[in-house]
Task: structure prediction
Amino acid sequence: MNAQLFPAVRQEMPSRLPFLRAWQEARYARRFFAHTALTHHLYRGVFATFDEAQASIPADHASGYDNTDSAELYRERTRRVFINDYPMIHWLGRCFDEGMDEVFDIGGHIGIAYYAYRKYLTYPKDLRWTVMDVPAVNAAGEHWAAEHDPTHQLHFADDVADASGCDVLFAAGSLQYLRYSLASALRRMPTKPRYLLLNSVPVHLHESYFTVQNIGVACCPYRVTAEREFLGGLTGLGYRLLDRWENPQRHCTIPFHPELSLDRYFGFAMRLD
Result:
């Protein structure tokens, strides 16, 4: 650009950029909090802690999954699996073949994986599959199980400490909603689970942070963990990585933060040595 011809533009443009960014972010915030579609999720902001992300959600918006609308989601997922489920089905089947029969499912909603996977796996006769979720979801899960779980192998819990001593800790797309990290939860357990089967985990190459996700009926603080922190926290507890896979169908696009957006999620199978 020729400064002789456009001196005003050269001087004024830098001063206008912060105002333009603020206007764009305010415009996106209005769209974000008005979002009600269940077919896709939106993300907004970058925060250092869960509490900061939580504080950014207006008081008049539902927050998290502990409400009736959130508890009524995902019924169709009890009848089908997706391509990213197959690594979990594979490793869960191997665990069953080794005699494992106690699964603790963090954030398993009403028992989505329990119902969907039984079409592809032979469940152990003495299987005990426990889902840990929030009270509203647990209540919906118990109601659903009364009609859809004739073998009564599905149970519900509200404390991750109950995973102590289980054979398989299972988490599919749920770790990102926890206030605490998985490693910190495992560290407090007297007896750690033998296997970790973790799917749809948002992992960033370098950075750990929180954002806010709008799922259509509520907004949720949402954890993204740096790869070294996530895997290092688990291997430091004695877990050995058996397998990892990518899910390019999942992504986390945070407007105004391309360097922190994710174009894929990850899955991991780990065993306690």
